[in-house]
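Session log. Operator J.P. requested a structure for one protein chain; no other inputs attached. Running the standard single-chain path with token output.
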Amino acid sequence: MDGDGEDDPKYILKLVSYCQQENNQKIFFASRSKRSEGVIFRLSYFLYRKAFKILSGQEIRFGNFSIIPYELMHQLVAVSEIWNHYAAGIIKSKLPYAQVPTERSYRITGKSKMNFVSLVSHGISALSVYSDIIGTRLLILSLLMIVLAFLLILVVITIKIFTNLAIPGWSTFAVGLLSLFILQFSTLSFFFIFLILGARNSYSFLPSRDYRYFILSVHQVFPEL
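Structure written below.
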């Protein structure tokens, strides 16, 4: 959880209780049923959630505030995606999780650093976790648009040859414009193909292996445990 007060500590015991009811076999997130930000931020966050749903096929309504059972920790630390975006990484990992409705509290002091630019960057980080899925979906969309453009070219040629409905110069302009669309979507298709392949071959950060490069020291509070 964050230490700025926006994650209300009163929900900690609630998360612990839900986790114990599931025999410590499920991660529980504190999803915010009521937010305290301004209208513009809430609207932007709503659009981000809808874009995430359309592109990845997954719903995301929570952030970092969560409880992780010790029994699942050994699996979670091998999920490389949580380094980029914690919540999206857990969703993609297929680890069991659930949500507990909570209300967002107010900051203890200072101003939030989460502005519009930060929100966009945060949203891109979440989408990057599903880059292979998003790339595949956009690739299919690009191929469908190419097929549609070819069909429209056939319609234009048919009208030009077999009917008297064609306006002089119209068919040439239409075919040229559709051919440009085909070229553009073909370029996008190659881009998405390399995006998918790049996501498959990229070096992954594994928390269980690479944490030592980012942590200065570790102190055991209860040695007897």
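Operator note: The beta strands are 27-34, 66-67, 97-103.
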